[in-house]
Amino acid sequence: MIKVAPSLLAADMSELGNQVKIIEDAGAKYLHLDIMDGHFVPNLTFGPATVQSLRKKSNLVFDVHLMLTDPVKYIEPFVKAGADIITFHVESNSNIDKCIEKIHSFGIKAGIVFNPDTGTEPYEAYLSKVDMVLIMSVYPGFGGQKFIEDVLPKVARIREIMGNNFDIEIDGGINLKNVGEAVKAGANIIVAGSAVFGAKDPAQAIAEMTGAQS
Ligand code: DX5
Ligand code: ZN
To answer: Of 28, 44, 103, 137, which one has the fewest beta carbons inside 10 Å?
Structure first.
């Protein structure tokens, strides 16, 4: 079952509540929230207060992607703001086990994120401790970049190790043309910013991506 997680980064920031409603009405089940600190990545987005305000208006699964130098400090504020899933980068400075334990201590799902140039092999011991792996298919920081297909073997490798009952999310540059490749490699949660919020008909874009064949 393929799930599309529209990324709010591509939404009209002056209309966040309405934009979330549009994609919820369009059939999305997840909302991908990109949190950037201007340090781990060269861009800034929004914080827990924004997530908390949106939580009151939406029943979507809030998938919070922390692009922070020290994510462990911000787990609790984002849980309190309404996160259902928190993912953090293995390249960050926080201790990976501590982050996973802290996220799980609040009863929500935890995932680890890999940048395009980071190999997954050194981190395979963590796979059995997390609920999700997120493979970046662009260098994090900005929406609207070109899909890096070289990351697909990492998706395939994780799928092979973890079997079918495990969430593998892919994030960056996914559109209607390349979503099939990502699904074929083994991704089952598809982050899409520009391809959903920039679509004439977001409902159709979500439906087409959800129907992508593996
Ligand atoms: C990049 C973010 C992505 C981004 C995806 O740092 O993690 O979630 O918003 O946007 P598109 O789909 O436009 O590449
Ligand atoms: Zn993201």
So the answer is: 44
C-alpha 165 – ligand 2 centre gap (Å)? 22
3-state secondary structure 82-141: CCCEEEEECCCCCCHHHHHHHHHHCCCEEEEEECCCCCCHHHHHHHHHCCEEEEECCCCC
Q: Phi and psi for 133 in degrees, rounded to 5?
A: -120, 135
Map out the domains of the chain with their CATH numbers.
3-210 (3.20.20.70)
Is 63 an active-site residue? Answer: no
> Does any ligand 1 atom lie closer than 6 A to the CB of residue 48?
no
Report the predicted TM-score, pTM, of the whole model to 2 decimal places: 0.98
